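#structure-requests
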Amino acid sequence: MLQLWSLPCSAPSDFSPSTDSSEEGREMRLEVGLILDDVEGEPFKIKWRPFGTKEKRVGLGMVAATWTDGSTYLVHVPRPERVKEVGKVKEEDSVFLKIKPALKLRINDSTAKCLCVDWASSDTLAIGLTNGWVAVYAISALLSSQPSVPLPTHYFPLHEGPIRAIKWQKYADINGEGEETLDEDPTTLVTASTDGAHKLVDIRDPVPIPILVERVTHQSATWSSWLGSPLMDDADAHTRQASIRPVHFVLNRVVSSHRGSIWELAASDCQPFIASASADGTLSIFNTLRDLKRHHHVVRYIKKVYRIDFNRLTLEYRMLDNILPEERQDQRAVGRKMAKKKEEEQRAGVQDVSMTGAWPEQIGVTACAWHPSLRRFALVASGMACGLVRVDWTEI
């Protein structure tokens, strides 16, 4: 089931998450639950489809969802107020609607199950598969023709294991004359796979370029429009930025860190902050532009939005807020000074009080996403393995 929740906020021009006078008594609530007809299982990854400039808006839009049956479904999302009006349901009540998917995408291969999706535009959709291949579809033509077996425009091998994350490079390409092609879709993808590799690939010439290879399962990768470079997780629960400049190609550096494996990275087109969700029960944000200052004295701050704990004895959850930012300096700034300080602490008997390296599976923060609006770009939503979803206003 796909759930659609409403978050009452003040006027968009106020830059504040507070509720205004006309919304007193309202809380975040479930508006519509969409149940797909003749579809078994649950959704795995969900991405909103952007509207085309010449496309007629129908309802709230369309979402692409990878399902546990190995398919990708495209679903029209109706407006909640219209559904309640037709069904004669009270405004404060929730509605559960059984609908038929607009399109079903599936590769005719038992080893090719859909795991992750990303939209390049309203017409182009990329899907990462369990067999390590990538499928790219032209959605507008498929929606108009409704073929019995939708075929991709591109289908090529990329990894030796399942692809866990896929993201388009969303900025204008340069043609042979040195001009920006603003009217064309992106062509470059960054991916993460369980085979231990992060790769770049251009669908016009699908020869993959490894940017990070480790003997560990990778879960997340994204693309920062502000940096013009991909961001990815590594074996030490760090977030790394990879350079794609010809001078420093494939070189990468650490920009943030967690104590547990990173499940998802989310970048916003409206501001330079990156959100990272981790298995240690924390959601963190950090400024990617501050990392560009390569002075030795520059301190990088990692803000933990919250942390969730689980008591195995009482079976209770605890949510911690207002956590002080963590400081992280460049390794070159540490040098002999930090090594000497650590040696003095060891002589004085000072013990390290860092957290454990194992956490209950219930507290893992498995998903995060920024609000795409320019007026609400500070809103970040995150989902946890225990079934909770939290929305935070991260203005700092």
